Amino acid sequence: MAWSPDGRFVVTGSADRTARIWSVVSGDEPAVLVGHDDRVHAVAWSPDGTRIATASYDRTVRIWDTRSRTEIGVVGVHRDRLTCVAWTADSRSVITGSYDGTVRVWKAEVDLDELMGPGPVPGLPCVDTRGTSRTHAATRRSVERARRLRA
Question: CA 29, CA 25: separation in Å to the nearest integer?
Answer without folding.
Answer: 12
